[in-house]
């Protein structure tokens, strides 16, 4: 009876993992909708004020012969349009929710309204444990798949030393994981963002370690046409982050 | 013999925890020294360039009757001195190393040199597991202390139900932990930073969850005299973060 109950256990675990993944994605979208609803109006207002401020500044200084006093404490720089870009559309809100739940927290933007901050705390209190559970369930499935592979190989090649096969499978999954979650994403991000290879790897590392400085964030360039569909690219980033964290948890 | 070996095990664990804590602090200071050495010269250069840029801008526009064309794509704002503040002194480098090792990664500043980024990756690869080990060792000591307390109480009050005492101790450590690591730090940060209570709690939560957006960072205000010694305050922030994360790991 042992193999059957084992198979049943596997099925049950697959079922639980699928359920967790589903719950995670529903929770992610739910969060994005709320963040979008809470933050978007304030953002629109602030953007309007920014343009108003800019217009007034231009008007005021157009007829002034002396724009700046020589007081060194008020330096002046020219801003690009990027500083007034829209952050809290549904796509931005989804990216924010993902960064929050994985605790990466890039922080290149974050809620400014009190309601947004309060929701952020409540949402993360439930969501971070849910995400951790999902990630560790995926990690366990990945570990099991590697064990399953080792067993199959041992069955097909009974003359090979079982321990050696198992160890090779563990070494193999580390190498495959490093290629799939570090080398390939670095290459994809490098092409998509036009960063150097070093900067791309730095971004990959800082993201998967959940540090997330926000100095490099994928899918955020507006001065450049992406060579791939941006929505597809962002979904790839989200999946890569989740499974990559699971891989790190598995090692 | 059981009690003696138990006591020995406890001593050994205390020894290991102390060793880990020591190793963590040495590693933290080591990282800060390297980051300071790698990033500080570039920062000095960039600051000098910034002031030069500002001076040229003032000179150029002092004698110009029309400072801005009406092209709306080049808005202008006045920068405060904060934007050119020094980040990579030893104190800033220490704060950066702490945020990196705990994976909080506030990201209000991060390395810009290639050497700094490369060291960041290598340093975190070793340091994040070391920090995780240290934090979980502290968590275990905290859990053990709570168990020890439950045992002492049970010995002194044998008439009380043992299970009830144990459960009360668990509930007690959650309440004490919430007060020590959430309520009191929120109050201290609120007084020290002059933020609202809501913003202070939001900062405490976003830090302990290791999300770290960087929209609020303690000990970083330069427009305000701190009512406490800043070095002392920053050490408090570091200790609070570490032990607070251990508390969350314990729950």
TrEMBL record, chains A, B:
<dbReference type="Pfam" id="PF07885">
    <property type="entry name" value="Ion_trans_2"/>
</dbReference>
<dbReference type="InterPro" id="IPR003280">
    <property type="entry name" value="2pore_dom_K_chnl"/>
</dbReference>
<feature type="transmembrane region" description="Helical">
    <location>
        <begin position="201"/>
        <end position="219"/>
    </location>
</feature>
<feature type="transmembrane region" description="Helical">
    <location>
        <begin position="121"/>
        <end position="139"/>
    </location>
</feature>
<comment type="similarity">
    <text>Belongs to the two pore domain potassium channel (TC 1.A.1.8) family.</text>
</comment>
<keyword id="KW-0406">Ion transport</keyword>
<protein>
    <recommendedName>
        <fullName>Potassium channel domain-containing protein</fullName>
    </recommendedName>
</protein>
<keyword id="KW-0812">Transmembrane</keyword>
<feature type="transmembrane region" description="Helical">
    <location>
        <begin position="20"/>
        <end position="38"/>
    </location>
</feature>
<keyword id="KW-0631">Potassium channel</keyword>
<feature type="transmembrane region" description="Helical">
    <location>
        <begin position="170"/>
        <end position="189"/>
    </location>
</feature>
<dbReference type="GO" id="GO:0016020">
    <property type="term" value="C:membrane"/>
</dbReference>
<keyword id="KW-0472">Membrane</keyword>
<feature type="transmembrane region" description="Helical">
    <location>
        <begin position="92"/>
        <end position="109"/>
    </location>
</feature>
<keyword id="KW-1133">Transmembrane helix</keyword>
<dbReference type="InterPro" id="IPR013099">
    <property type="entry name" value="K_chnl_dom"/>
</dbReference>
<feature type="domain" description="Potassium channel">
    <location>
        <begin position="82"/>
        <end position="143"/>
    </location>
</feature>
<feature type="domain" description="Potassium channel">
    <location>
        <begin position="179"/>
        <end position="251"/>
    </location>
</feature>
<keyword id="KW-0630">Potassium</keyword>
<keyword id="KW-0813">Transport</keyword>
<keyword id="KW-0407">Ion channel</keyword>
<dbReference type="GO" id="GO:0005267">
    <property type="term" value="F:potassium channel activity"/>
</dbReference>
<feature type="transmembrane region" description="Helical">
    <location>
        <begin position="231"/>
        <end position="250"/>
    </location>
</feature>
<dbReference type="InterPro" id="IPR003092">
    <property type="entry name" value="2pore_dom_K_chnl_TASK"/>
</dbReference>
<keyword id="KW-0633">Potassium transport</keyword>
């Amino acid at each position: 009876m042992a193999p059957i109950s084992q198979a049943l256990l596997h099925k049950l675990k697959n079922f639980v993992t699928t359920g967790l993944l589903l719950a995670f994605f529903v929770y992610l979208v739910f969060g994005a909708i709320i963040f979008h609803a809470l933050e978007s109006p304030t953002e629109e207002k602030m953007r309007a004020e920014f343009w108003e401020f800019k217009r007034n500044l231009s008007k005021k200084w157009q007829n002034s012969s002396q724009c700046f006093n020589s007081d060194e404490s008020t330096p002046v720089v020219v801003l690009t349009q990027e500083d007034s870009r829209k952050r809290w559309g549904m796509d931005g809100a989804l990216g924010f929710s993902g960064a929050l739940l994985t605790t990466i927290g890039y922080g290149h933007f974050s809620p400014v309204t009190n309601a947004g901050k309060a929701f952020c705390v409540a949402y993360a209190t439930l969501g971070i444990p849910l995400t951790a559970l999902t990630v560790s369930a995926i990690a366990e499935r990945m570990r099991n798949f590697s064990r399953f592979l080792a067993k199959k190989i041992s069955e097909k090649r009974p003359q090979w030393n079982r321990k050696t096969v198992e160890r090779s499978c563990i070494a193999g999954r580390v190498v495959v994981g490093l290629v799939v979650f570090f080398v390939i994403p670095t290459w994809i991000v490098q092409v998509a963002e036009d960063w150097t290879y070093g900067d791309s790897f730095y971004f990959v590392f800082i993201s998967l370690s959940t540090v997330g400085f926000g100095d490099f964030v994928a899918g955020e360039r507006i001065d450049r046409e992406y060579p791939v569909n941006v929505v597809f690219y962002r979904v790839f980033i989200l999946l890569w982050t989740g499974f990559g964290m699971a891989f790190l948890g598995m090692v």
